[in-house]
Amino acid sequence: MPDLDSGLTGKRAVVTGGANGIGFAAAKVLADRGVSVCIFDLEREKPWEAAQRIGARACAADVTSRESLDAAFAEAGTPDILVANAGIASEADFCEHTSEEWDRILAVNLSGAFHAIQAAARLMKPRRRGAIVVTASTNSYDGEARLAAYNASKAGLLGLVHTAANELGPFQIRVNAVCPGLIQTRLTQAHFSNPEILRNYFRHIPLGRGGQPDEVAQAIVFLASDAASYVTGATLFVDGGQMASKFGTAEFRDGCWRLR
To answer: Which of 10, 116, 165, 256 satisfies CB 3.0 to 4.6 Å to 233 for a cystine?
Structure first.
């Protein structure tokens, strides 16, 4: 059986939204495995500073602009691996959700992933090889309240993954998704800072805790590596068992989460 590093050393990877959170963790783990990484992110996110910390490269890129993405890919070169990770979220009651916010979230999370995947695939096809990993979500499957646009964008990503896997498979380009649950990042810090929210949320997670970006990054690297050479069109949950549990098995007792 190949190990996790199989086929990674010397490859090139692009990570969108790679200056923070899960994207940065994925970029770091890839770089640690001998991959030449280029972080794509907005200029205000300081991608060059993030890249410097892990010995990577960076390009300013806006995934909502195809012109910006094409320019970044021209600078970065043809990737062997794409991690389509850029994403945003905001909360609003369903009937109060503005069309402007709907358009903004869909533009980044769904259209941005489409543009990144299409641009990378066009470069990969002549080489007849490549691995693409998309950061979807457990929200690709559920209807968490106050997150209509986010949920819709993440659900749409799975349709994109399935279609791309189908069409790009003959060119030996694999397309998969990770579906993180509650992961401690900048986007979720408010949840992790509120013990009451965590108590209600963790009771539905069999492992009784939230995840860390590195735990998602390890799954991304697996799907990008030759260890997953016969895996395409798949989704890998990284959620502590949340999607396997309807009512949850954890209970907070004696200062920690235990089986009920």
So the answer is: 165
What pLDDT does 257 receive?
A: 54
CA-nearest of 145, 159, 84 to 116 is 84
Model pLDDT, residue 189: 78
What would the two tokens of residue 255 be?
């200062």
**Distant-in-sequence, close-in-space partners of 200: CB < 8 Å, separation ≥ 6:** none
CA distance 176 to 165: 7
CB atoms within 10 A of CB 40: 32
The whole-angstrom separation of Cα 169 and Cα 11 is 20
What one-letter code names the amino acid at 138? T
Active site residue 201: no
Using a pLDDT cut of 90, give the percent of the chain over it. Answer: 82
- pLDDT band for position 222 (cuts 50, 70, 90): very high
Alpha helical stretches, state H, 94-232:
99-106, 112-124, 148-168, 189-192, 195-202, 213-224
CA 162, CA 176: separation in Å to the nearest integer? 8
Task: Report CA 135 to chain centroid distance, whole Å.
Answer: 2
Catalytic residue among 141, 150, 201, 230: 150
**Residues 26 and 85: beta-carbon distance below 8 Å:** yes
